[in-house]
Amino acid sequence: MAAIARRNAILADADERSQRNIVTPEGVALPVELAARSERAAAFLIDLLVITGCFIALGLLAWAAGLLGFTGSRGDRGVAMWVWIALLLGWFVVRSFYFALFELRWHGSTPGKRVFRLRVIDRAGGALTADAVIARNLMREVEVFLPLSLIMVGLGTDMNGLVELAMLGWMLILTFMPLFNRDRLRVGDMVGGTWVISAPKATLLPDLAETGGQRPLSQQAAPWYTFSGAHLDAYGIYELQTLEQVLRQQGPNASSVREEVAKRIQRKINWMPPPDLQIDAQAFLQAFYTAQRGRLEAQVLLGKRRKDKHDRAASAKR
Amino acid sequence: MAEFRLKSFHFRREREATWRALDDLVGRAEKRGVKTLSSSELVRLPSLYFATLSSLSVARSISLDRNVVEYLESLASRSFFLVYGARTNLWEAIIEFFVWRLPVAVRRLKGPFFIALFSFLAGGLAGYVLTAANADWYYSFVDEGMASGRTPTASTEYLRKALFDDNPGDATALSFFATFLFTHNAKIGMLAFALGFAFGLPTIVLLVQTGLMMGAFFALYASRGLGIELGGWLFIHGVTELLAIILCGAGGLALGGALAFPGAHSRLANLATAGRLAAQVVIGAVGLLLIAGMLEGLGRQLITDTSLRYVIAAATAMAWCLYFVFAGRNRIHGSDR
User: Fold this and answer.
1) What ipTM did this prediction achieve?
2) pTM of the full predicted structure?
3) Between 20 and 30 A from A247 (CA), which of A74, A192, B18, B182?
4) Domain limits at A58?
């Protein structure tokens, strides 16, 4: 029991560590979830792949233009030059402004970020401005491109140990900055005043109280699944919401989990099934969930929020 | 039935249609852009958003259905970013930027700008004096690739030819060269800005280095009596280009300054303020470099008369001074963010 409580505390703590609040101008605090460092790294790699793909495509085009332009007449040569100019500018835009342009057009997202449902937001909760986006992405010059080009240069020549050491220090401090602070800010986030958050879309599932009512089986059975106040005082909000998860759970072993949970609850609250009642775990749990939620919500309305089953204070108070 | 006693159940049943309507609008806007929403839908968006936000507040206080609260939080923040993240028209923003935002930002970085200018000029002076006294310094300041044969051992005739190449080849080759120079310089400029994060020191080194190179060039050409001609060759685009490099340097120094001397705010808050301001300046500098690239690639090769080159250089210097000192003066109070 103590172990479980400790594990729950750790989980809640981890939740809190990655959660930040932004306050809307209407004064409602909205929780945002900081993006995981691993997801950000993976998103960056995807974007890097896209950039590399652009480089290869532009290079092939340049090669083709050169082949056409310099083997033909003089007029073709001029056209080839203009094509090269366009490609050179195109490559400059892709290399220097890929991230900034996508984040401006796609509400703080890039193709890589989109895959993981990440987005850039203003740390103060305001609109994401163009200067913030540009500032955070200009810093990639020193975070990524400079060490990358140094590595490539370094592979060709033999560098002396001191330079290598300095480079390592540089990489450790600037490139891996997100590892060293609580808000997982990279240097660009510091300069732009931004956060990268993870924004998975939550879907609205049917109300469990409603499905409980609509199932014909439980409709018939519900009158037998009745609970007294003493039954319902065994648990708090945490347990209720865990039960909600169990009921919403789908998968091969979901029903066996529900059987198990139903038995445990019956033991815990000392609930005796009426004689000659065939107990259906699903129906029992739904009926119990509905009754429990009604009880706890009524208490909440009176200002008593019972956090979990250990929270005796809330039920004892007043 | 038990569920009909649940207030949260009734609450949800009454409001769910609003949430679903907002969800649909936001989902479409996220997938295909705000522009795909019709005007009546756009009008409904804020009111649906406010309704959902109030639902969230109520749900937090009465409902223990975690799925509902989580859904509302997610929906509210998605629509929050949509409602408050909407920007003005892109072209409008660009025009606004050049009409007043950029000069205002540059004026707010006055201090770093003069430090950057001073570093560059000091480098230039040192480069000139040292190379004039001993030509061997030239090799330390100008790397071989940059010099491309224009070294103290080259003949005066060769040096002169480099300034007045009256056989420019075909114009498209020049444009290609100009484009290459533009992208190269822009990358250097952005690097100068980003390096400022290390307390501005690498930025100063970069500026002084550029100054040293310029000074060495001048000393070499002046020793052959070509100083005036070099000035014409260099400043026709150099006024714009050097200004851009110094502006990028100023951006970098502003970053370094925010870190080194945080003042009343935290370093993090300072860095964000300085970074956003400097980003505007750096983007402006990229614009300047584009103009400089055109002047360099086309103007310089087509105009080979030194006095005419000076006229253009003076005109650009004048224009930039007027622009950065006076443009957007009346907007200064509305310039925060």
Assistant:
1) 0.84
2) 0.82
3) B18
4) 17-198
